[in-house]
């Protein structure tokens, strides 16, 4: 017993401390926002970045905009826009709120507008004319819905004066729903919606040339759950063989969590591939993960969990963040053109919570985030490539 204690004190503890130290010094060396001398990325930065953007008419498209991180993102963008308005401002901001439930979407739109309008103070008239929140119907589970959405979007962009999408925030996600194979792609539902749905949407926008030609950015919202690359097996995407099949049979709840992680790992691969393939064409690709944010997904998703567990999850404020704070990662990924580049990954400094920091490339020899401990292996790059081909085949099926 005593010797175990000694091992912990003299070996494991110092090891953890030194890893931590290396991580902090690394992040601080590559990212000004990681420094404690500076305020975290905040609403002031959001406001500054929106109003300093070269594109005078900006279009930001957010999937899953009616709750959680999507809703918080819309709110921050609108508030930042309102706060930065003055007599000289010429920017226009169009936020397209893509939602599954239009009624909810419309209510959220009203709620946000009433919340942020006071920030426009003396510039009310300008505010009313230059900020638009547009709810649009999108169900990522259905290819027909995605197709219709993109066609409607094309028309809307034309009426906005022939503008293009500057930011696509692939935010929507389902989590923890019980096992189900979606016929359309013959894929488990979380993978089908979170990965293939966004893949289809993004590919379609690229094909229709709806991204801004000079500056466009795609932000993928990944998750802490993406930590284990082993769970994303293209050869066995629905866990029909080996130990994953056993887990599915005996521990379906755990299987559901693993599926979710796999779909979020796919988001990281997707970011990497999109960066590799399209950054030359001006479509940048940045990934973000919100750490442990207290959002409604924890209540709607985990149908199996007893109420008290959900309460504890939602009340735990030590390791978690308010969903507004969680949204800062994806907002920085979307807006920060100065210190965030295509292929980068924005995460909370302390893994589950903390300031939005840039840990460098999603996959790369020099990246050093906890998610990256297994990253710079060549097979991960190859797997990203394989996932791309696999997804392409899936979406034409
Ligand atoms: C946000 O950060 C800036 C520094 O960039 C700081 O001056 C400001 O006080 C911060 N604002 C809030 C609301 O924390
Ligand atoms: C986002 O995720 C989708 C689906 O996983 C992927 O196809 C796309 O390349 C990703 N884009 C970025 C910027 O991460």
Automatic annotation (TrEMBL):
<dbReference type="InterPro" id="IPR002347">
    <property type="entry name" value="SDR_fam"/>
</dbReference>
<comment type="similarity">
    <text>Belongs to the short-chain dehydrogenases/reductases (SDR) family.</text>
</comment>
<keyword id="KW-0812">Transmembrane</keyword>
<dbReference type="GO" id="GO:0016491">
    <property type="term" value="F:oxidoreductase activity"/>
</dbReference>
<protein>
    <recommendedName>
        <fullName>Protochlorophyllide reductase</fullName>
    </recommendedName>
</protein>
<feature type="transmembrane region" description="Helical">
    <location>
        <begin position="7"/>
        <end position="24"/>
    </location>
</feature>
<dbReference type="Pfam" id="PF00106">
    <property type="entry name" value="adh_short"/>
</dbReference>
<keyword id="KW-1133">Transmembrane helix</keyword>
<keyword id="KW-0472">Membrane</keyword>
<dbReference type="InterPro" id="IPR036291">
    <property type="entry name" value="NAD(P)-bd_dom_sf"/>
</dbReference>
<keyword id="KW-0560">Oxidoreductase</keyword>
């Amino acid at each position: 017993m005593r010797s175990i204690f000694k091992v912990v004190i003299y070996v494991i503890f110092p090891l953890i401390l030194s890893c931590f130290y290396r991580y902090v010094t690394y992040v601080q060396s590559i990212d000004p926002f990681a420094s404690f001398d500076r305020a975290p990325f905040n609403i002031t930065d959001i406001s500054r970045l929106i109003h300093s953007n070269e594109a005078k008419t900006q279009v930001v498209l957010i999937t899953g905009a009616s709750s959680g991180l999507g809703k918080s993102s819309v709110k921050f963008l609108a508030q930042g826009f309102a706060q930065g308005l003055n007599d000289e401002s010429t920017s226009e901001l169009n936020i397209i709120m893509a939602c599954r439930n239009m009624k909810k979407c419309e209510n959220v739109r009203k709620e946000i507008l009433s919340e942020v309008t006071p920030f426009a103070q003396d510039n009310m008239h300008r505010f009313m004319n230059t900020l638009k929140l547009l709810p649009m119907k999108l169900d990522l589970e259905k290819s027909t819905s995605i197709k219709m959405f993109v066609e409607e979007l094309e028309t809307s962009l034309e009426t906005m004066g022939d503008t293009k999408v500057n930011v696509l925030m692939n935010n929507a996600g389902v989590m923890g729903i019980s096992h189900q194979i979606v016929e359309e792609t013959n894929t488990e539902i979380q993978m089908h919606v979170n990965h293939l749905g966004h893949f289809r949407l993004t590919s379609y926008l690229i094909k229709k040339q709806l991204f801004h030609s000079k500056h466009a950015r795609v932000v993928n919202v990944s998750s802490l759950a993406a930590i284990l690359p082993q769970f994303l097996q293209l050869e066995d995407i629905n866990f029909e063989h080996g130990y994953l099949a056993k887990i599915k049979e005996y521990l379906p709840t755990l299987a559901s969590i693993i599926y979710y992680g796999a779909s979020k790992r796919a988001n990281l691969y997707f970011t990497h591939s999109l960066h590799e393939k399209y950054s030359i064409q001006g479509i940048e690709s940045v990934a973000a993960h919100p750490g442990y944010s207290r959002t409604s997904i924890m209540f709607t998703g985990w149908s199996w969990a007893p109420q008290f567990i959900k309460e504890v999850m939602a009340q735990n404020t030590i390791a978690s963040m308010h969903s507004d704070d969680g949204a800062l990662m994806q907002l920085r990924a979307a807006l920060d053109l100065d210190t965030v580049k295509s292929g980068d990954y924005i995460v909370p400094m302390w893994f589950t919570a903390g300031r939005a920091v840039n840990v460098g490339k999603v996959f790369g020899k020099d990246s050093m985030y906890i998610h990256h401990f297994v990253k710079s292996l060549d097979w991960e790059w190859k797997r990203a490539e394989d996932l791309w081909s696999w997804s392409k085949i899936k979406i034409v099926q």
